[in-house]
Design goal:
Helix 2 crosses helix 3 (83-113). The protein has helices spanning 11-34, 44-70, 83-113, 137-173, 177-182, 184-187; strands spanning 120-122, 126-128. It is mainly alpha-helical. The longest helix has 37 residues, at 137-173. Strand 1 (120-122) and strand 2 (126-128) form a beta hairpin. Strands 1-2 form a two-stranded antiparallel sheet. The protein has one domain (11-187): Fumarate Reductase Cytochrome B subunit (Up-down Bundle). The structure holds protoporphyrin IX containing FE (HEM) (2 copies). One protoporphyrin IX containing FE binds at residues 17, 20-21, 24-25, 69, 74-75, 77, 93, 96-97, 159, 162-163, 166, 177-178, 181. One protoporphyrin IX containing FE (HEM) binds next to helix 1, helix 2, helix 3 and helix 4.
Length: 190
């Protein structure tokens, strides 16, 4: 089953979910690690380039994932879930989707406004152009960097809530929510 149904995620949505979860969690770890390295560290340049390269992959996947979501039905949440919980789940998912765009875009703005003008060579293959930055570049860079940092902290909070909710569904409510994001086969019985 490639596409979603009203009761189950299809293979494409499941693949997008877990590949992107892995990439985004790695990016959070990498970002927090690399900014703590001294500027003189010989690994810093390579790690920043890797962070930027994976970030552009996340951005591209986010576009494809939302497009795929738009042409698929979304599986319904469990019928016995209270309305407020459904609202919180939708709000949480919207926040996760929004941050999948806002983090790469704000990071792109940081490097585009930076007075250092360091190019981004995606996986050492091709140069990603900088965004046009009108006005005060130093101020834009500072604002974008603060936004990028706090958006990352907010994303961590959302992920903790998201994973907590998934475990609550699985171990307390004992419903199909986690199973259907793990495998098409497991969810097909739902
Ligand atoms: C899923 C996407 C991304 C995530 C989760 C992410 C996460 C992070 C995190 C956690 C930090 C450390 C923040 C801090 O403590 O100051 C960081 C820093 C940084 N990121 Fe990203 N990032 C993403 C995408 C990008 C992209 C696409 C670029 C550039 C094209 C980028 C450029 C930067 C830069 C330049 C810094 C250092 C900022 C500074 O020195 O203040 N990031 N990122
Ligand atoms: C690592 C542990 C994770 C677990 C156990 C997990 C579990 C789940 C489950 C069970 C669902 C299905 C919810 C439903 O049926 O309505 C889901 C959906 C979703 N997850 Fe995760 N997730 C994890 C990580 C992440 C991460 C890191 C992100 C992104 C930052 C993410 C983003 C999403 C989004 C956007 C949806 C909504 C999909 C849709 O219906 O369009 N997840 N997750």
């Amino acid at each position: 089953m490639i596409k979603n149904t009203r009761s189950a995620y299809g293979a494409v949505a499941i693949l997008f979910h877990w590949v992107m979860a892995l990439l985004i969690l790695s990016m959070l770890g990498l970002g927090l690690y690399m900014v703590r390295l001294p500027q003189s560290d010989p690994a810093a340049f390579t790690l920043f380039q890797l962070h930027k390269s994976i970030g552009f992959v996340v951005l591209a996947f986010a576009v494809l994932r939302l497009a795929w979501r738009a042409v698929n039905p979304s599986p319904r949440l469990p019928a016995d879930m209270p309305l407020w919980e459904k609202g919180v789940a939708h709000l949480g998912h919207t926040g996760l989707y929004a941050l999948m765009f806002l983090l790469p875009l704000s990071g792109w703005l940081v490097v585009s406004a930076s007075p250092w003008g360091i190019p981004t060579i995606v996986f050492n293959l091709f140069e990603m152009p900088h965004l046009p930055v009108p006005g005060d570049k130093a101020q834009t860079e500072a604002l974008a960097a603060v936004f990028h940092e706090y958006a990352a902290y907010f994303l961590i909070l959302l992920i903790v809530g998201h994973v907590g909710a998934a475990f609550k569904h699985h171990f307390i409510a004992r419903d199909e929510t986690l199973k259907r994001m793990v495998s098409v086969r497991l969810s097909h019985t739902a």
